[in-house]
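Here is one chain, start to finish.
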Amino acid sequence: MGTSKVYGSPKWPGVNAAVSNAASSGHLSISKAKAAIGEFANAYMKYLSSGADTSIISGGGGIVGGRQSRSTGGGSGGATKLRVASSGARLAHFISTASKSGLDTALQEFDLSDLRDKPLEVFLDLVAERLAGEGGLLDDEALNRAMAETVNELAESVHSVAELDALLTNEDIDVEAVLHIYYANILAANFEQKEYSTVRDKISSASTSEFFVRARGIILAIVRDELSRERNLTKIDWNSEEGQRMADEINQEVLGILIP
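Its structure:
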């Protein structure tokens, strides 16, 4: 696993030292990896809270359109926070709509009805792209990758779009759990994208790839095993300011559980 773009490590105090320490030990120590992930999660949480305050939804038109969060500046924390929250709300809205009214209705809401007869792999790729939305930020690639991973994991037990429709309408999909995984995937993708060069300076290319595969596994295990799912989200209107704020709150909880 690897990203096609790798950026230099941000100057976040304590992060590079912790990542270097985890990468320098040869065999990846779980405790050192957790410490590095925790330092990164803490710095990333602070980054999302930095910069100018950004309106949750501009124009009052909801998040289904996927274009309200567009930014062209490359990377303030406020703009990234908005994009991360709105994409999570779109994912939750898509799943909730499909669960209540069927996949066709969800596709129609997102102007994706023409995808119904596509092969499953193509269908999932295009749905993930639509749910991720547009950005213009340095973090876009990590977010797009995380959405694709989450959507593909949601559909891992099906072999056709029709089977996915049945899964979404007949199974009790836990939206909160899906958002937990989505935000864990975003952190893992950002961790690799931003800390790859730090790790690569210490170990071989193959070992660096393995380092981030294992790091992602640790992140997902912590989120799945330690983060409770107690909210009743059935009445949340995800295509609203309320939904976007809830998505942001869930992201903050995911980051928080990873900080020692």
